[in-house]
Amino acid sequence: MFAVEMNNVSVYIGDRQILKEVTLRTPYNTVFVIMGPSGSGKTTLLRVINRLIDLVEGARVEGFVKVLNFDALHSDPYELRKYIGMVFQVPNPFPHLTIYENVAVAAKINGVAKSKRELDEVVKWALEKAMLWDEVKDRLYDHPHKLSGGQRQRLCLARALAMKPRLLLLDEPTANIDPVNARKLEEAIVSLKDEVTVVMVTHSPHQAARVADYVAVLYDGRVVEQGPAQQLFLRPSTEIAQKLLRGEI
After folding, report:
1. Is 218 a residue whose pLDDT tops 90?
2. What pLDDT was estimated at residue 244?
3. Strand spans (E) along the chain
């Protein structure tokens, strides 16, 4: 049983092929990292998993995608997304909502909390998991513009967690934040895998080595290598993976 299973998945946007016969399997309760240089198709792969690819004009997907036992390409995307949280590369908290409301809104929409007491508990739990609670517990009713960029990104992680997803997608979540906040986010990601399966995109081999249980190397739309992280980092079997680990591509 796998949280995500892709078989021979190809994605076209107009006449351009972005993903080329991608096959991969993500075990439950692991951190599965998709690694590759810019333009290799990493973000597109995440968009296939949660059906955000539907919003891309001219996009066409071929192959088989199973996500959390859903036949993902033929299921109701709104039903599928109830179980999938996502954090994007650029922090995007809702500016008109307070810190508390940013987290609470996800729990409300997904029906996670029924009472104010339950909502308070979920908000605290999500902020703790995002390693942000101690920094914001005395200013929950401030707006997110008062937070640093890294704190805003961890707020976005808390918001995604508050919906109690079974799968969490992270699209280069530390690319636009400072090193201190990036490390806190990495620590949070590693601590989450007992409760949620994480699929994370990064271009950084060093980051992948710190957080990953499994790694897939994506290059020019193809998975050129995948397997347990320790094995791939110690004995990469393809020239592309070797060059990526050396920082040459």
Report:
1. yes
2. 87
3. 2-13, 16-27, 31-35, 59-67, 70-71, 84-87, 167-171, 197-202, 214-219, 222-228
